[in-house]
Amino acid sequence: MVAVAGILVIVAVIIAIDVPPLMRKKLKKELWIFYILLLFGTALSIAQALNIKIPNPLDWITAIYKPLSDMIEKLLK
């Protein structure tokens, strides 16, 4: 739980530093993207701190391209 609290403190500091200039300049689209990416990164960090298994994107890419790779390999032999 200490790790999660530390992550949330760091997120609060990031928000305190980055959000005021965006609000002063009235950059609403950039603010939305900032919050979405920050939320995604925070969720992944908390999941990793709690030892929750996070799927590896490389496994998905391998599963998609493995049949194609096998077919090309058979054609070249």
TrEMBL record:
The keyword Membrane applies. Keywords: Membrane, Transmembrane, Transmembrane helix. The chain crosses the membrane at residues 32-50. This is Stage III sporulation protein AF. It comes from Peribacillus simplex.
